[in-house]
Amino acid sequence: MRHNILRTMTVAAMAAIVPWGVHAAGLSFSEGLSQFNVIVLGDAQVNSHVDGRTYVGGNLTGTGDFVQHPNGLASSSYSGLTVMGNAKFNSVNGLGTYVGGNLTGGNVNSGAARIKGNVSNSNINGSSKAAIGGTIKSSNINAGQLSGSNKTSALNSAAAVASSTDFSTVFNQGSSFLSGLKDTGGSVVFSNNNSKVTFNAKAGADGLAVFNLSSIDDKVFAAGEFSFNLNGAKGIIFNSDNAKITISANFLNGSASLGNQMLWNFYKATDVTLNNQFGGSIVATNAKLTNNNNIEGTVVVKTLYQNGEIHSDPFCEPIPSIPEPSTYALMALGVAMVSLVAAKRRSA
């Protein structure tokens, strides 16, 4: 009897904590960083352009241009622009578009358009026929349209790809994992009355340098200039636990171009403002990001107010092996099982 109760409790615990199907066909942390230029878990207002792919988990507004430079991007099953809610934008220039809600204004200039809702005030161009689930108003569907079962199949296939990755889980867990990495012992030097910060990297055995900025975040982010000495490190991860972050520093000597070698993990941030050109990928899954100048790297945030360009320069250096969401679940299951067994022994 006790064995049956334990087995029932075990199955219930697994059902509660294992994200069945969430990540089986989805992207990992590293794959998300490499395949996307922008990932927004909630809403985005984009008034500039994005070089690579964009995913928006909520609604998209603004006058943004997407996939400005499709050549050279990592291959992906995702469209150039994926919006799970409603969308309004200026243009998508490569790799197609998926919109889970209504498209109320936009030019799809290349690739397949898959719009589950209504289309208005838009131009659908390109060589692939569009699949539109709702009504069409004041729009030109120059690419032609799929109909009947072909339309249904195209919309369902696009929706399956768009929802195949739980980006919130993948990047929240990845950010948490990176925040626990041990500082590798590099130095942070302040000079010119603390107006300049020089990061002297020290790589670990894997070639990766880690800076834990938690004790000096405010002082670092208040500086007006950043300088970087990689000292042979293949990549750098910066961990900060500040909730509100404003960075106006100039990246000296063109160091913003080191974007693909730097990752800024703002794992507790709720508000991030960047006022000058910024180098490096940004992971801030609980934050509203406002960029008033260009970013050289991948952006992963909760909400986005984009006023500067975001250029595709993904962090591609060695990242420590980040457990998959299913691994986290199994770890939790192990803890639950130990507790259940202990409880059974006590009752016996």
Structural summary, described in words:
- With 348 residues, the chain is an alpha/beta fold.
- Helices cover 23% and strands 31% of the residues.
- It is built from six helices and 30 strands.
- The chain has helices at residues 2-17, 29-35, 148-162, 167-179, 217-221, 325-347, and strands at residues 38-40, 44-46, 49-50, 54-56, 60-62, 65-66, 81-83, 91-92, 97-99, 106-108, 113-115, 119-120, 122-124, 131-132, 136-137, 140-141, 187-191, 196-200, 208-212, 225-229, 235-240, 244-247, 250-251, 262-266, 271-274, 278-279, 281-291, 295-296, 299-306, 310-311.
- The strands form five sheets. It has a 15-stranded parallel beta sheet that branches. Strands 3-6-8-10-13-16 form a six-stranded parallel beta sheet, with no helix packed on it. Strands 17-18-20-23 form a four-stranded mixed beta sheet, with no helix packed on it.
- It starts with a helix and ends with a helix.
